[in-house]
User: Fold Excinuclease ABC subunit C from Fodinibius salipaludis.
Amino acid sequence: MAKKYHVYIITNTHHTVLYTGVTGDILKRGWQHKQKLVDGFTKRYNCTKLVYIEEYDHPQGAIVWKKQIKAGSRQHKIDFIENLNPHWKDLYEELLP
Assistant:
């Protein structure tokens, strides 16, 4: 099976902050965020809720899309989330086998 890459957005329980990232292992990365093992912004602002995921076959495409999302406004990020996940549910549970 070919490796997949993911662009993701996580938030806190009140949806007051949004963090955009890219990873080659979304299950592992999601778990690391939930356990607050990732030092920096996500740990400081309690970002543990995975609300947006997009899959790519190649890392270059994922990195380009992550940069475009990060360059956009907060409203653009909210629009991406609500288009995929209108109720802002935590998508991490759906990834578990």
Remarks:
- Helices lie at 26-34, 41-44, 59-71, 74-84, 92-95.
